[in-house]
Design a protein that fits this description.
The protein is mainly α. Helices cover 78% and strands 0% of the residues. The chain has a domain at 32-103 and 123-130 and 187-338: Orthogonal Bundle (ABC transporter involved in vitamin B12 uptake, BtuC). It contains 15 helices and no strands.
């Protein structure tokens, strides 16, 4: 009996160690993609010059100047935005128990984009800090609208109803955003690359403006991973365990808007990262959000920076915006998810 008592925890301990080792490997993978992001572009730079641009900068080196002034900000913004969008998607899927949830699918990104473009059109805004606040307002209002539409009618909310409501609202807001851009060429020129979702042409000031909100939102989501696990059991089970489900969902929604709003303000609307990454991670670690969200941080970085690198390579010396690449990859992924029989399972 005593031998059994000693041996029972071993499988769980081994699982924890294997997940920890996998998380470490994901961190190494994210670091490797960051190095590739510094190296690859219209001008390929060696690894030595890429690292020297950070740690031993030579102002007389053209290659190091390109890396330091253009690719370092681009890579750092990609790290912050990729991690935040992936964690936001996982948080939304857990809080709504909807595998089709994501900042782009449920309209949060479209709402933030519409609010920013509207503010630029009517208010002539130019500062990233101003973008962030309008992105928060637009994302929060849109998420409330989508949830209200998705819960209306008989049967309440369902994964498919929420996804359809999000797609409809996103399409409407996207058309309005396009109309505003066509009405004013100056507004169009100001947000041309931003509106397609792009990491190019950003400086570190954009990162420093958005980073506090991204850190607060991502850290808050990671800290409430246990509550998200309880929510995934269903409302009845969560209430039986003493959880105030409405309050937890409200906090989760605020965190998602923080992450998504800041990400959209920094890099524009980038779709499908928040949808795809949690699904990929759950295949590896299972449904435990104490592991899903940390893994999502690094997988989100790898996916977004990998898509950005692919966009630089495909049409050299021109580039394809990262938002276009993620949409091209993510749309078939969404169709595959929607066709699964057990679409309500998270």
């Amino acid at each position: 009996m005593s031998a059994e008592v000693v041996q029972r925890p071993l499988p769980r301990l081994r699982l924890r160690w294997s997940r920890g080792a996998g998380l470490f490997l994901c961190a190494l993978g994210a670091l490797a993609v960051c190095v590739l992001s510094l190296r690859i572009g219209s001008l390929d730079v060696s690894t030595a010059d890429s690292l020297a641009a950070i740690f031993d900068y030579d102002a007389g080196s053209y290659e190091q100047t390109v890396v330091r002034s253009l690719r370092v900000p681009r890579t750092l913004i990609g790290v912050a935005v990729g991690a935040a969008l992936a964690v936001a998607g996982g948080t939304m899927q857990a809080a709504t128990r909807n595998p089709l949830a994501g900042p782009s699918i449920l309209g949060v990104s479209a709402g933030a984009s519409f609010a920013i473009v509207t503010a630029i059109y009517f208010g002539q805004l130019t500062e990233p800090m101003q973008y962030v606040w309008f992105a928060f307002a637009g994302g929060l209002a849109t998420s409330a609208l989508v949830y209200g539409i998705g819960t209306a009618g008989a049967g309440g909310a369902s994964p498919v109803k929420l996804a359809l409501a999000g797609v409809i609202v996103s399409a409407l807001l996207t058309s309005w955003t396009s109309a505003l851009l066509l009405l004013d060429r100056e507004t169009l020129d100001a947000v041309r690359f931003w509106s397609a979702g792009s990491l190019a042409g950003r400086d570190l000031q954009v990162l420093w403006t958005a980073l506090p909100f991204l850190i607060v939102g991502t850290t808050g989501a990671l800290l409430m991973s246990h509550q998200l696990n309880v929510l995934s059991l269903g409302d009845d089970a969560a209430r039986a365990l003493g959880m105030h489900t409405g309050r937890v969902r409200g906090v989760a929604a605020v965190l998602v808007v923080l992450m998504t709003g800041a990400a959209v303000a920094a890099a524009g609307p980038i779709g499908f990262v928040g949808l795809a990454v949690p699904h990929i991670v759950r295949v590896v670690v299972g449904p435990d959000y104490r592991w899903v969200l940390p893994y999502s941080v690094f997988v989100g970085v790898m996916l977004l920076l990998g898509a950005d690198i692919l966009g630089r390579i495909l049409m050299r010396p021109s580039e394809i915006q990262v938002g276009i690449v993620t949409a091209a990859v993510g749309a078939p992924f969404l169709i595959w998810i929607a066709r699964q029989r057990r679409v309500a399972d998270v």
